[in-house]
Amino acid sequence: MLTGRILTPDGWIAGRLTFGERIGAIEADTACAGGPLILPGFVDLHVHGAAGVDIMQGGSAGATVARAHARHGTTSMLGTTMTAHPAAIRRALESLGPVIATRPAGAARMLGVHLEGPFISPHKLGAQPPETLPASLDLIRAWHALAPVRALTLAPEIPGHLELIPQLAALGIRVQLGHSAGTYADGVAALAAGAAGFTHLFNGMSGFAHRAPGIAGAALAHAEYAEIIPDLEHVAPGAIHAALRAIPKLYGVTDATAATGMPDGEYALGSQRVYKCVGCVRLATGSLAGSALTMDQALRNLVAIGLDVADASRRLSEYPADYLGEPARGRIVPGAWADLVVLDADLRPVTVVVEGEAIPR
């Protein structure tokens, strides 16, 4: 049982929350009004690493990353790959499969995989290596059999990609537009074909200009969902506010790398070497390369730029869960998974619960 101010889809309730693996009862009690905040656990759909390890390393990396992020309130997540030779992606997926099938003790639930490449534009690599490929349905199906691919980033302007989107959607894969040099028209056409979202909005895509709206413009004009990195480095607060007004269910992701939770220094991001310094992660060229963000810090950042806690929480829990088609996660209602984060007055986690298991702090 937990007591405090409980955030439900209908608003705050002061009271008691009982749970096993699933949430049981929510009982109002005004005597609990002075207690801590109890929020749905965070749902992070773009995670490359943490604790010094990268998803692409394979082996035990997936479990290590899921445990590290759980301590910061993330209760479910997608392990995210990098552009690489297909054999390297295959090895990573083979290692993620068992972690997805059976949640390790003390870890966030790995809901599946986000393939962020290799089906991207060589002209918008960002921190991805230049090993891009045109998308192949047979290759994606083979990878999907190793570990469920829940989200896939592609550049819609690459020949053949637009026609592939409906087939990927039919497999249950959420197609996201990103790492794209495409036009506004390319983005609109991809959405009409069944694309569902946008990868790290504003970053790794053709930007918005009033005579050339680009992929970012297609998102602002037409998207229901898009992910954004609220570390306040990848996107300025003013641009976040513009996106909040334009995209109804804008949601936050960390794009976290192996440098997350680690001191300044050199780390791996797929086959790339990246460097953490003063909270940022960059390539040797100085370009941003993922982040060292955690979801609890994302919440604090969103509140710092003017969102109330309830709205910030929805954008880190309910909206990404809905985007992925996970109605029993990202909200505190009877029958949902008992994925919970308890925050102190400074919005720092004091207790994290994943499917009823209290996570060691």
TrEMBL record:
It comes from the Bacteria. Residues 38-357 form the Amidohydrolase-related domain. SUPFAM superfamilies: Composite domain of metallo-dependent hydrolases, Metallo-dependent hydrolases. Keywords: Carbohydrate metabolism, Hydrolase, Metal-binding. Belongs to the metallo-dependent hydrolases superfamily. NagA family. This is N-acetylglucosamine-6-phosphate deacetylase. It comes from Telluria mixta.
